[in-house]
Amino acid sequence: MSEKKDIRALTKTELREFFVSEGDKAFRGNQVYEWLWSKSAHSFEDMTNISLETRKMLEDNFVINHIKVDHMQRSSDGTVKNAVKLHDGLIVESVLIPTESRTTACVSSQVGCSLDCNFCATARLKKMRNLNPDEIFDQVAAINQESLLYYNHKLSNIVFMGMGEPLMNYNNVLKAIEKITSPEGLGISPRRITVSTSGLPKMIKKLADDEVKFNLAVSLHSAIDEVRSEIMPFSKAFPLKDLKESLEYWYAKTESRVTYEYVVWKGINDSKEAINALVKFCKYIPCKVNLIEYNPIDDGDFQQANQQAISDYISILEMNDIIVNVRRSRGKDIDAACGQLANKKS
Ligand code: SAH
């Protein structure tokens, strides 16, 4: 028996054509498409305005590979972490982060990660595979439902800061964002979506060429090549001058300010030299810096710098008119904070 096709791999046009080829009306394709995307149907049975006969025909031809929230944990600060099971049994994690002003979904783009940032727990997992567009979309839809359930309002923001490197799963991430932003999907504005990359110059340029409308964040952590390639070994292949050039290209095309994510660690990047290098890097294009609190992973190689070093970063950046925010960690007690996603149940 041939394997049934995942119906959500079909575009709306393809779905309309399928119904015509079955002797039905193209319009039926629109109805089914709406069930699949805006109504997040998990089975053909759910599609109550479609005739039983048509539902049976769909059942015979297709599957809906919907993700399943396998395990959910709620932190004392309100953060919710979902361990999500994919149709082939693999697991990824996504997180709902509520604050007074917004509710943010942090979603994964790959199962595991192919990069090797020494301070990140996800990097210890082998990369198993890229997520499909519908698997990324489903994480967002699941968190949107949880947000409605627990906080009585819809999701307001999405960050691609979960497991994986989004720009190494470029096409699927862009397709997922297309669905998330389309009125037939979740209708969330691209201005409320941020894709975070470890900094792959070629792919940053591609984003600019594709004129994407979402925000870009770059995990910088050091503006000194030797330090950066020590803590993020893959970046040896992408020196800061290439990153700088790609960011200038991005800004020239999009006029969209970039966010640099930055953790300050004791003995690694807590010197004046490190701060001055960051200030210099920040002058290349309009940007802002998010200083992220370090979330310790099991060993002790990395330690959060002391408060004085962090205050020095803030005052020197501000003195140079660079916007800087300090990002407090959320969901630490359930291993849901940045860099802690590693399929651990506690
Ligand atoms: N691969 C993408 C997105 C995933 S990581 C990227 O690198 O941007 C999301 C953010 O968490 C990145 O800025 C990453 O550098 C940061 N991060 C990773 N491990 C961390 C840790 N242990 N503590 C704090 N931030 C961490």
UniProtKB/TrEMBL annotation:
Enzyme class: transferase
Subcellular localization, as worded in the UniProt entry: Cytoplasm
Cofactor note: Binds 1 [4Fe-4S] cluster. The cluster is coordinated with 3 cysteines and an exchangeable S-adenosyl-L-methionine.
GO cellular component terms, A-Z: cytoplasm
Amino acids binding [4Fe-4S] cluster: C113, C117, C120
Gene3D superfamilies linked: 1.10.150.530, Aldolase class I (3.20.20.70)
Limits of the Radical SAM core domain: 99-333
Gene Ontology biological process terms, A to Z: rRNA base methylation; tRNA methylation
Catalytic activity, as annotated: adenosine(37) in tRNA + 2 reduced [2Fe-2S]-[ferredoxin] + 2 S-adenosyl-L-methionine = 2-methyladenosine(37) in tRNA + 5'-deoxyadenosine + L-methionine + 2 oxidized [2Fe-2S]-[ferredoxin] + S-adenosyl-L-homocysteine; adenosine(2503) in 23S rRNA + 2 reduced [2Fe-2S]-[ferredoxin] + 2 S-adenosyl-L-methionine = 2-methyladenosine(2503) in 23S rRNA + 5'-deoxyadenosine + L-methionine + 2 oxidized [2Fe-2S]-[ferredoxin] + S-adenosyl-L-homocysteine
PANTHER family: 23S RRNA METHYLTRANSFERASE, RADICAL SAM CORE DOMAIN-CONTAINING PROTEIN
Function in brief: Specifically methylates position 2 of adenine 2503 in 23S rRNA and position 2 of adenine 37 in tRNAs.
Protein name as it appears in the record: Probable dual-specificity RNA methyltransferase RlmN
